[in-house]
Amino acid sequence: MSSQDIPEENLPAGRDHAHGAVDVADHENPFANPGLPPHEHRIQDIDERAAKRSERMVALLFTVSMLATIGFIAAYLAIPNDKSIFVFPLGHISAMNFALGLTLGIALFCIGAGAVHWARTLMSDVEVADDRHPIEAPPEVRAKVHDDFRLGAKESALGRRKLIRTTMFGALALVPLSGVMLLGGLGPAPGTKLRHTLWAKNKRLVNMNTNQPLRPEDIAVGSLTFAKPDGLEERAEDFQDQMAKAALMIVRLQPGNIKDKRELDWSHEGIVAFSKICTHVGCPISLYEQQTHHVLCPCHQSTFDLSDGARVIFGPAGHPLPQLRIGVDSEGYLQALGDFEEPVGPAFWERG
Predict the structure, then answer these.
(1) Mean pLDDT computed over 162-183
(2) Which of 71, 210, 222, 307 lies at a CB distance of 3.0 to 4.6 Å from 293, suitable for a disulfide?
(3) Are 232 and 218 a contacting pair, CB within 8 Å?
(4) Residue 316: its pLDDT value, please?
(5) Distance between CA atoms of 45 and 123, rounded to whole angstroms?
(6) pTM over 0.70
(7) Contact criterion met (CB below 8 Å) for 342 and 322
(8) Model confidence at 23, in pLDDT bands (50, 70, 90)?
(9) DSSP letter string over 95-125?
(10) pLDDT at 153
(11) CA proximity to 258, closest of 228, 229, 293, 208
């Protein structure tokens, strides 16, 4: 059905006067305005039943958006973060990530699709030619802007299409809740757990490679050995989290080469134990130069002097490596005499 088949009095009133208007080219105006093609009314402009169908479609899209947002919140609260599912052709992926991405994508898509469908079927589609004007806004221009805004608001039928208005406001009100829920993914405040490790008094030092407790005679002068707390097994669920704080490197120096008094007091026969975690961004330190007693972080080249309290001598690290006070137990095994005196790794916001 086209506008030619409808009596003129049944067509919606609008700004159709600009369509079809042309200028005639002459010597004074060789580039005449060709005008705009005749405006064809949409079926929604002619048939209120079609307009109602479009309105229901827009409302349906906004409603689906609301349901998807509720699904996002439910998925975030109900799905364990370690659960995985098989999705062809992606393979095994996180069930929570898949559900959150799917529901949030549907929620945002339906709002956009609903707005586009609303604009294309129910809002005015009359093309209006407007001449360019100076940047300044005189009173008559401001008045015209206000008139255009009121006319646009009227043509959008937002006041008359209450179903669209209600569902649109509902969808827009619920979508931000997705972002609020994501804030919960930041997890609880760390509290004091970043200040403490598994090292404690009488906790033996275990070789990372052999998984055996270390004796002083196992550490040769100039060697570098990595250790973990006794009882921490690789199959433990929190192994990586605990090793990120408790990883230890052990070197043996000649006692006369140790410059720092506290380092000497906390050592055992020249054996010193320092945190393996770089104080810059937390990379594991593994490069040791026995002639200079320097250790180098491979990530950003922070360099620490293990003969002088592991102080920083080069690079972006902000403070020395924490030292672990060690001794030997009654069976002759190396053991910790307590936890680190200061937090290991880089600075954090609660450190103060």
Answers:
(1) 87
(2) 307
(3) no
(4) 94
(5) 9
(6) no
(7) yes
(8) low
(9) HHHHHHHHHHHHHHHHHHHHHHHHHHHTS--
(10) 82
(11) 293
Residue 142, pLDDT above cutoff 90:
no
**Interaxial angle between packed helices 162-174 and 48-78, expressed in degrees from 0 to 180 and rounded to the nearest 10:** 20
What single string gives the DSSP state of each residue in 166-204?
A: HHHHHHHHHTHHHHHHHHGGG-S--TTGGG--S--EEEE
DSSP string, 215-238: -GGGS-BT-EEEEEETT--TTSTT
Confidence of residue 134 (pLDDT cuts 50, 70, 90): low
Count of CB atoms situated within 10 Å of the CB of 182 = 13
Per-residue pLDDT band for 78 (boundaries 50, 70, 90) equals very high
d(CA 307, CA 257): 6
**What residues does 226 pair with on adjacent strands?**
249
Q: Which two tokens stand for residue 129?
A: 């030619």
pLDDT band for 203, please (50, 70, 90 cuts).
very high
User: Mean pLDDT across the stretch 139-161?
Assistant: 85
Count of residues making up the chain: 352
119 close to 152: Cβ distance less than 8 angstroms: no
- Residue 313, classed as helix, strand or coil, is strand
What's the half-sphere exposure (Cβ side, CA atoms, 13 Å) at 230?
13
pLDDT average, residue stretch 126-144: 78
Instruction: Determine the Cα–Cα distance for residues 13 and 16; give it in Å rounded to an integer.
Output: 8
Query: What token pair was written down for 39?
Result: 């405006």
Q: Which residue intervals of 16-94 are DSSP H helices?
A: 43-46, 48-78
List CB contacts of 42: < 8 A, sequence separation 6 or more. 121, 125
Whether the predicted pLDDT of 18 surpasses 70: no
Residue located via tokens 């059905």: 1
User: Rounded CA gap, 180 and 186, in Å?
Assistant: 11
Q: Is the link from the previous residue into 322 a cis peptide, with omega within 30 of 0?
A: no
